[in-house]
Amino acid sequence: MSLNAPPEWTKEVTLRDSTKVLLRPEITSDIEMVWEMQSTLSRESLRFLPSGFTREMVEGWFKNIDYESILPIVAVVDEPRGERIVGSATLMFSKHPVFRHRAEFGINVHDDYQNRGLGTLLIKHMIEIANVKGIRKIILMVLTENERAIRVYRNCSFEVEGRLRMEHYHTLTGEYGDDYRMAIIL
Fold first, then answer.
1. Answer CATH for 7-185 from 3.40.50.2000, 3.30.2350.10, 3.40.630.30, 1.10.3720.10
2. Fewer CB atoms inside 10 A, N or C side of the chain?
3. What pLDDT band is residue 41 in, cutting at 50, 70 and 90?
4. Which residues is 85 bridged to in the sheet?
């Protein structure tokens, strides 16, 4: 397990409303803040995620944190009641030689911090990290009806590579849905 995080993986950013947010690698002591974020997402936010989150699923993320396989970056704000994680993004790396040039991307921003520029700042930060790590391509999957996310991805230079029909079954809605595969070449 590798938990060496270069200093450039940590960065303070400012949202459109002047809120200061610290972007940094997730650490094992973040488990309660991550669970708090995931367990308080609205039904609307959960609708755009591939599946809901259980406590066991979140705990599993923290069992073997290895930044060489999956790099989770969290967005931390200092609120009157203390620190709070309000967003997260991940880059998932393949060790297989054929796929070592690319990373898979995922992102989640809590409802309270949506429409404030946090998603865009997280995406740009992850692109910077990918560049430093020598990644040449970042790919992601997004539900075709998630127009807001698609717009943000396009604004960050991601392009649709294809539409995957009936790619997922969403347990929250009980429906099958299509996904776009989007990518950016670095």
1. 3.40.630.30
2. N
3. very high
4. 76
